[in-house]
Design goal:
The protein is of the alpha+beta class. It contains three helices and seven strands; from the N terminus they run αββββαβαββ.
């Protein structure tokens, strides 16, 4: 399901070079989140939503143009749209400070990659813990047992030569 591949990153890095603006950046974000909630004996929520989105921001003559979209096929069109928005606005008053070019690959290691565990196994584990809680004492009337994990990838390139990839898992 993870689609923010090296090929996609290369396409974005190549596209930034085509933008005629005082400053430009393209950001891609990919997000997958598992959430399992038991309230009492029954599951209340089991979800594993996925999203992939893009953001283009350009600065022309002191004015910003911004677009958001979720299909890379629209990248050229959305770049042109952001440029058009900035030009429509006319002369603006935004001046960016000089910043150094940054290249970074930020990732966090996992002892065990939770993405390799099936949703069925995660649900089974949460159910087991929930049942233990319900049976712990006769006074336990209900539970609220929650499992959540997230895998978030952010990729940013800008016209100043910066290229940053951040991979952030969380359980």
């Amino acid at each position: 399901m993870i689609q923010l591949s090296q090929n996609l990153q290369d396409q974005i890095a190549d596209a930034i070079k085509t933008i005629k603006a005082d400053y430009a950046e393209i950001r891609a974000e990919e997000f997958i989140n598992t959430r399992i909630v038991y309230r009492g004996a029954d599951p209340d929520l089991i979800s594993e939503p996925y999203s992939l989105g893009f953001f283009v921001r350009v600065l022309i003559n002191g004015s910003w143009g911004i677009t958001k979209f979720n299909d890379l096929k629209n990248l050229k069109e959305k770049i042109a749209e952001a440029v058009s928005f900035a030009k429509l606005k006319g002369k603006g008053d935004v001046n960016l400070s000089d910043t150094p070019q940054v290249t970074a690959d930020i990732s966090y290691s996992l002892i065990k990659d939770f993405r390799e565990i099936s949703l069925d196994k995660k649900v089974e584990l949460v159910k087991k813990y929930n049942q233990l809680l319900l049976k712990a004492d006769k006074n336990v009337k209900s539970t609220n047992t929650i499992y959540a994990d997230t895998y978030h990838i952010k990729f940013l390139v800008n016209s100043r030569g910066s290229k940053i990839l951040q991979i952030r898992p969380s359980v």
